[in-house]
Amino acid sequence: MSENKDPLVAESSDSDVEGVKFVYDFTEGNRDLKDLLGGKGANLAEMTNLGLPVPPGFTITTEACKTYLDSGDEPAALRDEVSAHLEALEATMGKKLGQADNPLLVSVRSGAKFSMPGMMDTVLNIGLSDKSVLGLSKQAGDDRFAWDSYRRLIQMFGKTVLGVDGELFEEALEAAKEAKKVTVDTDLEAADLKKLVTKFKKIVKTEAGRDFPQDPREQMDLAIHAVFDSWNTDRAKLYRRQERIPHDLGTAVNVCSMVFGNLGPDSGTGVAFTRDPASGHQGVYGDYLQNAQGEDVVAGIRNTVPLAELESIDKKSYDQLMQIMETLETHYKDLCDIEFTIERGQLWMLQTRVGKRTAGAAFRIATQLVDQGLIDEAEALQRVTGAQLAQLMFPRFDDQAKVEQIGRGIAASPGAAVGKAVFDSYTAIKWSRSGEKVILIRRETNPDDLDGMIAAEGILTSRGGKTSHAAVVARGMGKTCVCGAEELEVDTKRRRMTAPGGVVIEEGDVVSIDGSTGKVYLGEVPVVPSPVVEYFEGRMHAGADDADELVAAVHRIMAYADRVRRLRVRANADNAEDALRARRFGAQGIGLCRTEHMFLGDRRELVERLILADTEAEREDSLKELLPLQKRDFVELFEAMDGLPVTVRLLDPPLHEFLPDVTELSVRVALAESRGDANENDLRLLQAVHRLHEQNPMLGLRGVRLGLVIPGLFTMQVRAIAEAAAERKNAKGDPRAEIMIPLVGTVQELEIVREEADQVIAEVQAATGTELKLAIGTMIELPRAALTAGQIAEAAQFFSFGTNDLTQTVWGFSRDDVEASFFTAYLEKGIFGVSPFETIDKDGVGSLVKSAVKAGRATRPDLKLGVCGEHGGDPESVHFFHEVGLDYVSCSPFRIPVARLEAGRAASSAKGSDHR
């Protein structure tokens, strides 16, 4: 091909669209054409260009597949293009497809842009027939090999192309081995295989209603169509949904001249990796199987031997393979996954691709390649992901342990937790203080369970999803959590949980929960700690052993990410302990302190008195008692985060969440009345619960509405913040408090609250003689707030996007209910690629964020912008927030390293795009 010709333009116009070609010889493509040639075809072309031993062949493009799938028929020009390339292949090989005396055989293999292992179809040995099998036997000088190849073709073709139940062929093969009294198919002789071919053809005739095709071109054409069709099989679609691969890419088809690993002991097939995909260590890794074709390795029909043993089996091929592996890794500058076949001592390369690897291997390999000078630090940063880092941070159950799984829910907060089952917070606290490890099991949690959640090793609920109370709080604490395990029946009154099959877990029984998979086990499953977390907490340093080597790799990549990222990373933290942990993990401040968590525990009675207050005097008394407690909270928080910003959100949830459960309270009152000793306080509480009851409390009296309806509530909190900041400043500290007003929908709400807050701050400044610079801003968590952001920015010094509630209100979803009720169906049907509560919905919620950023900064150019919803720690969402120009993201402490890494990747990727 001339250097001046575009490889995407054909020399003739014999295609459906003038200038477009649908078939490329392996000599024409390269690895950059994966969109057109698929990953396999592009890499076969690349290896051909490198002069490596690749069997000649050609690739039918993904465009041909898309045309076929859209119209139900192949492009009109495709058959002629295939014929032309087939003739060229026959000329190269000196034989014709399926000819009787000297047959050319080919494989027809799928190859999409993104690897979809085992999801689509492949057919080997195409071109064999009742006549050509005799020619193959003569050509190879091996009767057994020829009939073995023929039975393989009929078996694969029957199952893949004609839709015959594969079990029928397997049963016939097993019957042949039993009749011969052998256990492996390699012990079947030519006569046995010839009989098996006859049996297989009868199966095809009976099940498919037609004879096995004897025309080799018909075999090839039908196989090509079958590969096209396999793009839309149920398993392929499900895999793409899980891996978030677009459905409109289509697959390429690779037609490759056959080389045979089943020609005897001097032949074989194998898979090799240029480095260990599990650890990243350099060495000889892979498997080899003598006298076999590729599917034998995958199917596990016979046990393979370690690749290193190939050196003693075939030293020449082994040495050549090692050289090729080094060439490929140097060329691709990454771990390569290789498929190869040896045909009578001749090595052939059938595929290469950048290999999949474990999270630990990804970090090790990235830094190794930097040290070898193959890539720079910027590229190393792009070779790892936040998801991989998260995998390295959470403790895991021992894979070798024997387990008894009793249920499965939503993997809400990663980790591995073991403890005794308890069914209320009081017991969790009591047992924990006695040295017991417990798992708090509830139907769902609420703010009243916070102390129990803190005391527990992990939380298990039968209701709720990834953004339910249990999930959000657990992630904030780095606590393992499984939510929405609906198959588990939780009975808190009888203090027991019933699993499918009648397994009953009583209080005190040991259970284990895996927050990374959602699996629940009976009994204790051993856990393996994470050295990466120990590193982030300052308890481990890089050294010589394997764990330390991993930590060193993580350290190097994190250091580079921190140098290049633009986004700052803050923490969602509600107390000094969480703040200190977040700081150790690299937090640059607190982006969300939820003050409602400070109103529980020993302050519950004060809050109840506030809610029950009938007079202004009673309400003021309650607020006066709460003030010093709130102030103490903030003093501790400002001390822990000294010198860094702390954004305090004023009270947000509905008041009824601070009152007892209506059912439990009603029963208590009824029982007391039946005994004649009714408690006046309980009666008032019950009245208050009924009074405050709302059909949809998340859209009711909460957030800024509370501050406007209950006089003194927000001003008490503002005063506590201001006095704490003044005290800290007078102690030579550097408090940087920011006050955030939640659930604002109109600028007027913010103006009223801000005016009151400014007055309180001025009073504190006058009383303490301390100058305070307290920024006042708001959460953008309602669609109206996003749409009127330009107006709201007139009264706000900063915006923090509350993307949990914004997602809820944009979609009309109740996040505590929908994940467990219908999200699974939505994911399976492809409506969602991923939950919008997990990764931000760029088209809907994201467009509101983008417009609010633009409008807010148009009004106030120095407007500080952040996000404090759960999306702040989601890898993909972090990239979006970088692109729209936010200043920081805020997330739970244990997700801070992930956010730091992804913020660095976002900045590095954007810089690389600019350069390109």
UniProtKB/TrEMBL annotation:
Class of the enzyme per the UniProt entry, highest EC level: transferase
Residues forming the PEP-utilising enzyme C-terminal domain are 552-904
Please give the Gene Ontology molecular function terms for this protein: pyruvate, phosphate dikinase activity
Keyword Oxidoreductase carried by entry? no
What domain of life does the UniProt record list for this protein's source?
A: Bacteria
InterPro entries in the record: ATP_grasp_subdomain_1, PEP-util_enz_mobile_dom, PEP_util_AS, PEP_util_C, Phosphohistidine_dom_sf, PPDK_AMP/ATP-bd, Pyruvate_phosphate_dikinase, Pyrv/PenolPyrv_kinase-like_dom
- SUPFAM superfamilies given in the database record: Glutathione synthetase ATP-binding domain-like, Phosphoenolpyruvate/pyruvate domain, Phosphohistidine domain
Query: What sequence ranges are listed for the domain PEP-utilising enzyme mobile?
Result: 436-518
Pfam families xref list: PEP-utilizers, PEP-utilizers_C, PPDK_N
What are the protein's UniProt keywords?
A: ATP-binding, Kinase, Magnesium, Metal-binding, Nucleotide-binding, Pyruvate, Transferase
Q: Where are the transmembrane segments?
A: none
Which reaction is the catalytic activity of this chain? pyruvate + phosphate + ATP = phosphoenolpyruvate + AMP + diphosphate + H(+)
The cofactors required by this protein are:
Mg(2+)
The residues covered by the Pyruvate phosphate dikinase AMP/ATP-binding domain are 78-303, 309-360
E.C. numbers: 2.7.9.1
The UniProt similarity line reads:
Belongs to the PEP-utilizing enzyme family.
Tell me the protein's name: Pyruvate, phosphate dikinase
Origin organism is: Streptomyces lutosisoli
